[in-house]
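Risk register update: the risk of archive-format incompatibility is retired. Evidence:
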Amino acid sequence: MDSFEDYIDYRWPAALLATALGAKLLARSKPWTNPLLRAVVGLLVLAVAVCVFVTPGMIVRVNRVTGVPNLAAPWVYTLLTALSFACLLLIIAWQRGMEKARGTVRWMTVAYAAVAIALWVLFVLADTGTERVRDFDTYYATTPYARELIVLYLLAHTAAGAVASLLIWGWLVSREHAVRSWLLGGLLLLGTGYVANLVFDAFKLTAVTARWAGHDLDWCSTKAAPAAGALSAILIGLGFLLPHVGEDFRRRRAARATYRRLEPLHRLLGGTGASTGSSSTRWANAYLALARRDTRIRDGILRLEPYLDRELWERAREETFRHGAAGKDADGIAGAVVLTAALGARGTSPPRDDALDPRKLLSAIHAIADALRHPGIIEKVRRQCAASTGSTHTS
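Archived output:
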């Protein structure tokens, strides 16, 4: 059985990233054809894989299953290279857009694919017959081909981290993102995460170069680097996830707010006034619940079309304008007055030949719902309209 120390550095980052991946898959609001969604999901999958396969227990399993001592080393290095590529790809896509970044993505793909192939070629050429679970980098730091293998993956990882850091902090300084608070938070996490990533590389390179000089600083590679790497994994994973989850949360909250905003109009037209299902279900289906409520309201207005009083609409708007109401407020109050009258006339009065065009009400359902929250104003305008109609008939 693996000891707790085998997982102490990367168990929690792996769990956190897996949870983030699951949340992203369950809460996605964009189709799989969206390249940014695929990039985020791919990056999180790679990040989880790195955190899982980098643990000593999993390294031993890979070596045992394949029957090749130290095969886990190039496998983990390849995953790190792919993760570096995915991180750079997503940052560039965020900053420039997928279409504009196609040329950059092509040469990046070629470069990182070449690095991945070279890692495996160097591993095949190297003499790494002694299994090293925790200190492969320092143990083989002076071994031909293995030395180049280690340096290549560290340089590729460092280069990706340095470029990503420059892009992120440059983006932060430019303030191009100022109106997108969720993206700002994600960039701050990413920027800090890539600093930790460079610290990881610095510890690894320090330990390797110390071996070249005949010194032993293996603790930099086996103790300090994993801690920095774990912190980097958490921050980078959260940094990439925050803008997407945050924006999705914002849209769902807006949908729920609109759903509640339409409640008075929904109730007026015969709605139940309460949603079915648990609160968590209603939150998860916020878009669907809003679409259903919006459809029911529009259908209810269309069913009342023969009873919509065009003259009452015009008089109500005149009354509200006379009391200083703005255009949307006037449409909302007038619409509420007309709908209330139409509901009373349905079944007791014949259909109107000159009924109001329902599109006037359909375009103002939010304003009507807002007006219905103030029944006193609606009743006052209704009485004033009735009084003006009576005075007109008398004269």
